[in-house]
Design brief:
two-stranded antiparallel ribbon, alpha/beta, transferase, DAHP1/KDSA, TIM Barrel, 12 strands, 3-deoxy-7-phosphoheptulonate synthase activity, DAHP_synth_1, single chain, eight-stranded parallel sheet
Length: about 350
């Protein structure tokens, strides 16, 4: 056997007992979840802005960021619902590099997944308790979701995971919105198929049990741009892209057609400071065409305390994965989105 068993991981029940949610936080999340769901159910005209670090690598910096975000939320609450992006697992194209606090609660130390599981739940609970904002996370590993299924208000399925059957089945049992990204190839029918699969009921293995799901009507699309066979980034947020995707999305007859536009990754060609321009262009397209306006429900924005990125945690509040928009520019962008919407 080629596997070395290091530690037996704590169960989700053990972690939830160790780091519980208070009754007040449970009720607060229920109310906030209802507001977020209403956007996708076309019962609330506000936009959802999922914004925060590429990777939540430092609890102190992430909490400082979300506290700043909470103050802005109060000022834009009539137009926007702000949701901190607290991504605790990071996909790595080659398997190298920092994989998130689930693997390394201390990025400078060796991996420790047992401690990482605790660190992830503790961070999400602290974000909710201190800022009042419930967060989004990426479901990179389906087996991790049971540790967080009572704290997350939004789940993203990444470009490398969206074709995976287990991810699609897992989303079918969630009761929160789940953004299914287009694959890195940009194949939009794959995105449509992933949403359809997530909206259907299934029977499968989950958390050590055989389970049945009823399907998740809140599963929806997320456009993040593509990469062609030559390694060139190809944006898919332009007016013509949104118009075409709106057409095929509506023709698919899926429930609650909805779209989140990712302003970074291949859409920005990895130029993080292009994110404000991209968001403004999408808003202009929404004003120009009603079908785009009805489809687009918000944005995914990579943002941290400081501009750019670094290889190690030498500068507090700067990303150690993809480059992010700094706080001052991010705050300005949020106000511009609210004013332009």
């Amino acid at each position: 056997m080629s596997y070395k068993y290091i530690n037996k991981l704590p169960t989700p029940e053990e972690i939830k007992t160790l780091i519980p949610l208070s009754k007040a936080l449970i009720e607060h999340k229920r109310i906030r979840d209802a507001s977020v769901k209403a956007i996708f159910e076309c019962k609330d005209d506000r936009l959802l802005v999922i914004i925060g670090p590429c990777s939540a690598d430092d609890e102190k910096a992430v909490l400082e960021y979300t506290m700043k975000l909470a103050k802005v939320q109060e000022r834009v609450k009539e137009k926007l619902i702000l949701m901190p992006r607290v991504y605790t697992n990071k996909p790595r194209t080659t398997g190298e590099g920092y994989k998130g606090i689930m693997h390394q609660p201390d990025p400078s130390a060796d991996p420790n997944i047992s401690k990482g599981i605790q660190a992830v739940r503790q961070l999400h609970v602290k974000v909710m308790a201190e800022s009042g904002l419930t967060a989004a996370d990426e479901m990179l590993y389906p087996n991790n979701y049971p540790y967080l299924d009572d704290v997350l208000s939004y789940v993203a399925v990444g470009a490398r995971s969206v074709e995976n059957q287990q991810h699609r089945l897992m989303v079918s049992g969630m009761d929160v919105p789940a953004g299914m990204k287009n694959p890195t190839s940009g194949d939009l029918p794959v995105t449509i198929n992933s949403i359809k699969a997530a909206q259907l009921p299934h029977t499968f293995i989950y958390n050590g049990h055989e389970v049945e799901t009823t399907g998740n009507p809140l599963a929806h699309a997320m456009l993040r741009g593509a990469v062609n066979q030559y390694g060139r980034n190809i944006p898919n947020y332009h007016y013509e892209d949104l118009l075409y995707f709106s057409k095929i999305y509506l023709e698919s007859k899926l429930q609650l057609p909805s779209l989140i536009v990712d302003t970074n990754h291949a859409n920005s060609m990895k130029r993080f400071d292009e994110q404000p321009r991209i968001a403004m262009e999408v808003l202009r397209s929404m004003h120009h065409d009603d079908s785009i306006r009805r489809l687009v429900k918000g944005f995914l924005i990579e943002s941290y305390l400081l501009d750019g990125r670094q290889d190690t945690q030498s500068e507090y509040g700067k990303s150690i994965t993809d480059a992010c928009l700094g706080w001052e520019k991010s705050e300005d962008l949020i106000y511009r989105i609210a004013d332009s919407f």
